[in-house]
Amino acid sequence: MYYGSTLTPRATRYFLLLLHSPMLPRRCCLFWPSSAVSNIAAVPSLSCSSLLFRLRKPSFFPRFSSTASDDDAAEKQQHDGDSSKMSILKSGLYLVATPIGNLEDITLRALRVLKSANVILTEDTRHSRKLLQYYNIKTPLLSYHKFNESERETTILKRLQHGDIVALISDAGTPCVSDPGFELAKLCTRQNIPVIPIPGPSALLAAISASGLPTNEFTFVGFLPKRTGSRKERLMVSANETATQIFFVPPHKLHQFLDEASSIFGDSRSCAIAREMTKLHEEFWRGTLGEANKIFSTQQPRGEITLLIEGKAKSVAEVPADDQLELELRELISNGHSISMAVKLVAEGTSAKRKHIYALALRLCGKQMEAKEYPD
């Protein structure tokens, strides 16, 4: 600590105190009038806070300068203002994604919504309470599942219409995706009640990202029907699609699924089986449906399973022979179509290149003109 006197333009006597202490994050200068520090001796061992406490309060607030600029303070004030605005949620139905296994896989925004909501709708209150207790969230819970969703809707709508903030969560992952909530969300949209998604964990996206299968196009099928006929019909539809197919499979039905899928898709179709994702015993198995059917016929895996099957390979259409193309061109031209229109129609109906078809059309017309000029 150092202090000394200085003169201002108005000849007012001030003491300049240079305060440097491990208690302060930055060096700072504090200007006090000399009257405030008369009778005060410099004690180097005193901390800055002790010295300031002994100073007589001046008639004006001291001028304070620091290495921190006023812009930093203004920026902090603006940030605090923005944070307070962000903490204010509007009334509506919030679809909050929750962890699929690891409790740390939750967003800060999701936690803020769950803490700010008036009520949280959940499939299983006992299961969801573990997550809420982990993050010390005291918001009341209300059970909402497929067996009571119709009777709950009226009560929930009234709360939303009165300005409540209602959060909807599932046991794991994103609500309304193979989980209850779709009907409630649809009802809210029809009533012009805001429906706000709070994105986060998703089993299907986590599985396809690490599956090693094509991700540019995929179809989420979810759980298959329970009836054998309906289940096989759905598998036949998926077998003919070129996009990667994603299924949710209960562990006790995995062998049945693989047996039916390998017979419909074929043993050589590539697949990936994701089990217990984000949990301690997370496992990814990759291979063909035939291999999976043999391996998992003798073992019964546990935990939630997401199964992905590679889409059907896009077949390359064979290019028709020139004789076939000429036959189609001759028929179109004889029916009154111009050469350009005939070429266009043939090109749209085949995989042959338009330039090649046009050359055939010119050759065909040349033969026809030659036949007219030199008849037999």
UniProtKB/TrEMBL annotation:
**According to the UniProt entry, which residue ranges have a biased composition of type Basic and acidic residues?**
74-83
Q: Name one GO molecular function term.
A: methyltransferase activity
State the encoding gene: LOC103695799
- Alphabetically list the UniProt keywords: Cytoplasm, Methyltransferase, rRNA processing, S-adenosyl-L-methionine, Transferase
- Please report the name of this protein according to its UniProt entry: Ribosomal RNA small subunit methyltransferase I
Note the InterPro entries from the entry.
Answer: 4pyrrol_Mease (IPR000878), 4pyrrol_Methylase_sf (IPR035996), 4pyrrole_Mease_sub1 (IPR014777), 4pyrrole_Mease_sub2 (IPR014776), rRNA_ssu_MeTfrase_I (IPR008189), SAM_MeTrfase_RsmI_CS (IPR018063)
List the Pfam families hit by this protein, alphabetically. TP_methylase (PF00590)
Q: Which GO terms describe its biological process?
A: methylation; rRNA processing
From the UniProt entry, list the residue stretches annotated as the region Disordered: 65-84
| UniProt cross-references to CDD domains, sorted A to Z | RsmI
Q: Where is the Tetrapyrrole methylase domain?
A: 93-292
